[in-house]
Target: 4-hydroxy-tetrahydrodipicolinate reductase
Amino acid sequence: MNIGLFGYGKMGKMIEQIAQQRGHAIVAKVDVETEEISFKTMDVAIDFSTPDAAFGNITQCFENNVPVISGTTGWLDNYENALDICKQKQSAFIYASNFSLGVNVFFELNAQLAKMMKGLDQYKASMEEIHHTQKLDAPSGTAITLAEGIIANTEYKEWKLEEQGDKTIPITSKREGMVPGTHTINYESLVDTIEIKHTAHNREGFALGAVIAAEWIKGKTGVFSMKDVLNLN
Ligand SMILES: NC(=O)c1ccc[n+]([C@@H]2O[C@H](COP(=O)([O-])OP(=O)(O)OC[C@H]3O[C@@H](n4cnc5c(N)ncnc54)[C@H](O)[C@@H]3O)[C@@H](O)[C@H]2O)c1
Ligand SMILES: O=C(O)C1=N[C@H](C(=O)O)CCC1
Model:
């Protein structure tokens, strides 16, 4: 398969390695200095760029009939607009805040635990995410997806950075060294704490998941999720 990379930073380079190991060709490496993009030979585009660049990259691909896998976080104010353009152009799209298999299992575990905690008012939910110091957005996209999973299955109404409140999930974002991504969810009562945690050891899991999603989407039309790709039910 011929892949166009949008964003050739830490993730773009890791995706290149994994894609080549799996027999794919990288036909474009689009980054901030790129002046001209040839879409003709691209079977699929993988966007891991920046919050400011993602929407433009994604919609350019749809306009040129190229399906998109996007892992960029921090651009979701424009998510519904991107879906409209994808549908208009009869293209295909997967966005995931986290492409790793482990985190996608963790998303399911989080939803199951939230269902069990619903109505147990003696417990207060909170979340902590830790990432490297170069990360531009906070909280992480993964933390937002986890908070949405709790909100969908409990009486919590919203998440906020740090802020407390009965119906608010407080998220603490820490930026330390080279940490690839650690997410912890706590339910704390006066007598005990229930904690679930996912720790990424490196970026390979994110990159492999994105390449698997690109293999899966080829030839399809529509908007999908990693749940579809991984058949997690
Ligand atoms: N979904 C996931 O599984 C997952 C995993 C890791 C990182 N991410 C997200 O992916 C994004 C990239 O992460 P990273 O660690 O590779 O960051 P990075 O800073 O190392 O790389 C981003 C690259 O995008 C480039 N860029 C800037 N403007 C651009 C434009 N207009 N077009 C194309 N490229 C442009 C930058 O020059 C840089 O090379 C971030 O939003 C991060 O949160 C998601
Ligand atoms: O390194 C990053 O940046 C990461 N971003 C994603 C997020 O915001 O959740 C996934 C984990 C790594």
Notes: DSSP finds seven helices and eleven strands in the chain. Residues 101-117 form the longest helix (17 residues). The chain has a mean pLDDT of 97. Residues 73, 97-98, 131, 135, 140-142, 181 surround LLHOTIJI (ligand 2) (CB under 6 Å).
